[in-house]
Amino acid sequence: MSNKIAVAVIHGIGKASPKFKNKDNPEKFAGGIARKLKSQVSELLGEDEQQIDSKLEIEVIYWAPILQNLEDELSRRLELKKLSNPWGLRDFIIHSFADSIGYQITPKHREIYDQVHQVIADTLKELAQKAGSKAQLCIIGHSLGSVITSNYVWDLQNEVMRI
To answer: Is residue 30 a contact partner of residue 9, using CB atoms and an 8 Å limit?
Structure first.
């Protein structure tokens, strides 16, 4: 592998924590996926993980803050704190549904969709600068993150980007 491989990790629905994007501690960011990925690549190539660090550039696409304030406002308006929250189910449902619904394009609104795609564009640009212009790109998406990635790539291929 003469060039680095650029790896972007995009989260799915739910309340993603800022620790998801903790670049200073790769053991924590993206739920440990960076550590696991490096370990697996190291094993496959028969190299130690320090050698793999020089071959992989991993960046997190962290779009959760775009919808977080709106979700918090929804919870406040619905006075959800007054309701029970067994096993965190109430919060999970609010954040999951709000992420899925908020991301959708409507005939009159696509601001959130475009904002999320702008985060992807900005992150991929940063990743390309770190990994080099010849780096191959791998995007790992979880849940709604894979749908968002698919939409982003489709929009690029069909020249419908508005960012």
So the answer is: yes
Residue 125 confidence (pLDDT): 96
Report, as an integer, the average pLDDT of 28-51. 83
Other C-beta atoms closer than 10 Å to the C-beta of 122 total 12
User: For residue 79, which phi and psi values (nearest 5 degrees)?
Assistant: 55, 45
| Residue 31 confidence class, pLDDT cut points 50, 70, 90 | low
Q: Which residues contact 157 (CB under 8 A, 6 or more apart)?
A: none
- pLDDT for 110 beyond 90: yes
Backbone angles phi, psi at 162, to 5 degrees: -115, 10
Radius of gyration of the chain from its Cα atoms, rounded to whole angstroms = 18
What's at 62, amino acid-wise? Y
Look at residue 133 and give its three-state secondary structure.
Answer: coil
Per-residue pLDDT at 1: 44
The runs of H, that is alpha helices, within 54-134 are 65-77, 89-103, 111-131
Of the candidates 76, 66, 71, the residue with the CA atom closest to the CA atom of residue 11: 66
Residues 6+ apart with CB under 8 A from 35: 26, 27
